[in-house]
């Protein structure tokens, strides 16, 4: 198993190299170093101030190694990321590591309950519609799922802010408070919206998994030995369905740390998602690349964790 | 005394484009205590569906449409679901064709047998495990103690079928339904499993409904044979009578196409064509489209049951005609 993890990690290094390269190309195709400076200093900044800013922030160097092998932005990009030297934000010169540290808490306080709630809602619902397969309950459930999936998240956000926040005045429309007593009030709306927009797709996916497992021969065996439908669902179907479900859940875990982009931005939660959205809006290359780099690292680790978790639920899995 | 299991007028249908299509149609037979009855037919003849109908395990959207399945006089088709569950696995057990896929891949095989026992008896897990170990030994699983914790993928096909048999026998059922129990196995393993079933049947005096397409298996195990074609019975007889003197043209065709009976170097005679799909079954005798003996009424009228000898039933216009002719002389 150790050899397996090592091999997967070495593939992961290749992926990280690719992600960093793509990000560099994409960013500098649409944005010039002058644009970064102008966004940091304001549109009316005189050219000499912009030149000075570029020198101070290292953007006076050429982009590519063939322009200057010893001193170019691409090599500097790799060197800083791979040594975890994230540096200062291009937007306001604040230390990026500190901003990330302050954003992890708010992000996790939203994304962890969101993941747990999503599972707690989606699995029983999908077991229910799978149990009533081929009936009106099942068809109605699938219809509602497709409906829930089809509506844009933005509509849920605006709709919930208007209806629950403004008309009913149950919860604040937006904002954040790290005080544990106040926190649930601020998290209520983003959690409702997050669960609502995610549950449709999850229920449909889990239902398909449950239905597929329900038609297996060993389920017929369990029926033939006299097991009840409820027992068959929980002991035989659920255990086997855990394999694809785990993939879905464990793959989502890394993204708990990168935060929920839209939810954080719209509900004013100062988490990592907000930092990423702000960085995109502000042409803040140094912050953006850090978020993408951390995101890709977490994704690779998440995938390895998913593969290892198969070994826990499926005795047939061996790591070689 | 009435038979242990009496099947009468059993009809199982699946929804089709123009109304329900019967895949099992008007099946009737008896299964006596400690008797082995073979249900024989080609693929698609409805023999597996007949077996699943008895246990009310017909996969949706199929359903049992008419008939009665009486176990010691009690109609299983009328039982509430919970009462039916107490029949399944306790009084009537079933083993299947595919031992590879019939065991739950994520549970140890011992635990699956323990579950079967505990579903029907208030017994501690330790005791159920001990009984499972004894059952494993009885069905010829080597090193039974270690095999209790093995997962299905760690066992060969033959061993998996032995586990299935141990599971089916764990509550001492009166009836074992064996649906093509050896079809998916290697030839040498087939012989071992058949020998095991024969020994267990004799020791436990258990009735077996054996579903097979293989007349060699019938010869090994069966006391009586019921031949099915396209959802209907065509002939029911004692094994010896049926194998030595088949009356229905379909039974004769099946026997002729057995490799063991063919002469060396000769092409194996076959029945021309295949069983048509259920929605294309002819309205008269269902075998009429492939029958060499067919004459005028065959395509239009369903043949009625005739009893050419005690305990022997045939559904065939040709047999009927000859019997009538014999009676007229």
Overview of this protein structure:
The complex is a heterodimer of chains A (320) and B (329). With 320 residues, chain A is mostly helical. Chain A folds into two domains: 2-83, no CATH class; 107-313, Orthogonal Bundle (MetI-like fold), CATH 1.10.3720. Helices cover 75% and strands 0% of the residues of chain A. Chain A has helices spanning 2-30, 33-41, 47-57, 73-82, 96-131, 136-150, 153-167, 183-214, 217-224, 229-252, 254-258, 261-267, 272-281, 285-313. In chain A, helix 5 (96-131) crosses helix 8 (183-214). The mean pLDDT of chain A is 86. Chain B is an alpha/beta fold. Chain B has one domain (5-91, 173-323): P-loop containing nucleotide triphosphate hydrolases (Rossmann fold). Helices cover 34% and strands 24% of the residues of chain B. Chain B has helices at 47-54, 81-87, 99-102, 109-120, 125-138, 144-147, 157-169, 187-204, 215-221, 239-244, 249-256, 317-328, and strands at residues 5-16, 19-31, 36-40, 63-71, 74-75, 92-95, 175-179, 207-212, 224-229, 232-238, 305-309, 312-315. In chain B, strands 6-7-8-3-9-10-12-11 form an eight-stranded mixed beta sheet, sandwiched between helices. Chain B has a four-stranded antiparallel beta sheet with strand order 2-1-4-5. The model of chain B has no long low-confidence stretch (mean pLDDT 89). The chains are: A mainly alpha (320), B alpha/beta (329). The A-B interface holds A 133-134, 215-218, 220-228, 235-236, 239-240, 313-316 and B 55, 57, 59-61, 82, 85-90, 93-94, 96, 98, 101-107, 115-116, 119-120, 151, 153, 164, 167-168.
Q: What is the topological layout?
A:
The complex is a heterodimer of chains A (320) and B (329).
Chain A: H1 2-30, H2 33-41, H3 47-57, H4 73-82, H5 96-131, H6 136-150, H7 153-167, H8 183-214, H9 217-224, H10 229-252, H11 254-258, H12 261-267, H13 272-281, H14 285-313
Helix pairs in contact in A: 1-14, 2-3, 5-6, 5-8, 5-10, 5-13, 6-8, 7-8, 8-10, 9-10, 10-14, 12-13, 13-14
Chain B: E1 5-16, E2 19-31, E3 36-40, H1 47-54, E4 63-71, E5 74-75, H2 81-87, E6 92-95, H3 99-102, H4 109-120, H5 125-138, H6 144-147, H7 157-169, E7 175-179, H8 187-204, E8 207-212, H9 215-221, E9 224-229, E10 232-238, H10 239-244, H11 249-256, E11 305-309, E12 312-315, H12 317-328
Helix pairs in contact in B: 4-5, 4-7, 5-7, 7-8
